[in-house]
Amino acid sequence: xxxxxxxxxxxxxxxxxxxxxxxxxLISLINDSIETNRKLTCVSRPRRFGKSTAAKMLCAYYxxxxxxxxxxxxxxxxxxxxxxxxxxxxxxNYNVLFLDISSFKPMINAGKTxxxxxxxxxxxxxxxxxxxxRISTGIDDTLVRVVEYTGRKFIAxxxxxxxxxxxxxxxxxxxxxxxxxxxxxxxxxxxxxRVFAAAYITGILPIRKDGSQSAISEFKEYxxxxxxxxxxxxxxxxxxxxxxxxxxGTDFSKMKTWYDGYMVGSESDIYNPNSVMEAIRxxxxxSYWSASSSAESxxxxxxxxxxxxxxxxxxLIGGNEEQISTRxxxxxxxxxxxxxxxxxxxxxxxxxxYDGEKSTIRIPNEEIKAEFADAVHxxxxxxxxxxxxxxxxxxxxxxxxxxxRVAEIIExxxxxxxxxxxxxxxxxxxxxxxxxxxxxxDEYLQxxxxxxxxxxxxxxxxxxxxxxxxxxxxxxxxxDSPESAINQIKRNHYPERVRDYGAEILLVGISYDKDTRxxxxxxxxx
Length: 526
Description:
single chain; Rossmann fold; Arc Repressor Mutant, subunit A; 24 helices
């Protein structure tokens, strides 16, 4: 049993000792690809969305150096019809080549090239494990000889395959050498077909579109934009999270607010798995994103001077959806040249949820809103900073019941931010309100269409625990008066839905005259 060749099942055994959400159905997808022209699979997803756990699971399942029956016999891959057809046939039946590319980083930092690091570790391990195998100067030829000696092909599992491609501290020649290494394994049919029954590589970025990574162009890709059949294995779904919350006595509604919101292909209500588990372990709802992701790059990206980028980010922070074109993005963190490129990159990083049918993005949940709310304070654009200041002022003016100033600010934002074609409808006004109050995150949690009494509250801002601010119950009208909005709040008993929260309640009616475009506001204590 080695580290890179046939690493055994101990890593997945440790996973099973902790809380484990069953994602073994992914194994059936790889089983279906074995020894076919679809045997090379590349799955990309954000950090802390289960990439490494999936790699450990696959190693344990395929590795011929161990017996993993006890780890899988009680899981879906063994029990569920439609998934378990080839379960026994492939269980522990292959040599495994397991490369976690991030593990080579210390050796690279110490002055070795990536090829030197891989050769020094992998080939030396083969020498120890298979002393009768004649070692070649090339890793590919050596693997061929291992297959000939053992009579078993390899399943290749490469975790963080794109780490070196994403690292701007790695020189271009080193990246080229690394891609040439991948080419030697997965481009040549003379080697690939003789050595590998299947390969599974995973990282954050998809394969580049400009051909410079043609070493791995033979891989079938599944991404955050097009996850296809791998969509159920990206993140936790809502039933899984409900089960976890029930088991641990955790507040599901708060879990949903903080970590839900991703749409992955046809799968909706997808949760960040790392954050869900950390919230359960720590018994605390907060952002676990910064500790696990390159959040510092977010500020750098949204500070790029692309037309409309920062206005779009502000709108997204406010809770709106925005259109996006993903077609021109080259899947490269150094080759973006437009607003859409940056926004597409942030989808791959997990900062946005992408709706493929509508080609729209949105910030998925409170955790990611927190990251953007922190980042927006460091945006260099003076207009954006003015909007931040104005939004904070608007919250304070609302709490102070300054109806005239609240109406004036909302009217100006509506005029400046809304295309004339879409000005006269309630959905437009809703977007403007969310944009106007986008700095709410410092004091509030935002909810839309909250069921209450005899209807749905348009927008509610609940104060955070440490906040002394009141609850804001906002009703919107574009064909009527603000007084009618207040009357609807009272008539439908909206305050009763939120009264138990314990804070003071302010009823806010906002309307505008579609002919004069004059905005009005009425604020009362609930």
